[in-house]
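Tokenised fold entry reproduced for absentees:

. . .
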Amino acid sequence: MNIQLTDVKVHLPPTERLLFHIQKFHLESGEHLLIQGASGQGKTTLLHLIAGLFVPDSGRVNLGNYALHQMSDEKRSEFRRQHVGLVFQKLNLIEHLTAVENVQLSLKGFEEAEKLSLNALETVGLLDKAYNWTSVLSLGEQQRVAVARVLARKPDLILADEPTSSLDEKNSSRVIELLLQAAENHSCIVVSHDHRLEKYFSKIIHFEDLLQ
């Protein structure tokens, strides 16, 4: 899924301070991009914008044939459910559900949702923890549950915010390789401070370069 942002401005409430102005950003369908940069510049906000979690104050956000800036909240939510996989920095797991139940939440309407969820957890090395409450898992294990939630759906676009921030070298490599494997022939944007990820991407952009 190709991504096109044109003359996009995002302001921060309540002061309406300009967070960023991106005149033009384009990612071809199937490309994998790593975005780096200092904290507070708006990298996470950019991911949320591309995911359709909100619309810009001005400008155009086009994903494939979809004009997200013209869509209602309901339509963007449906678009996101069908096409986008998100790995948030704040993992958004429900602590009183098991690992497999958290993965299944992303598979509403899918046949054999539990089987797909278990397969995804096995892929990230957590099959033995599938029926553990998420609250008793380590932070690194929770991060892998969040990745499994995306892998189970095989979306057209994967957006990941600091997906390896709580992982050691071995699990960091495993998670990013799995994400990119899931994104084979699909688009993927990863935002990260983790310089270990640079070797996995042929396309790397520093966020400030998007503002020029």
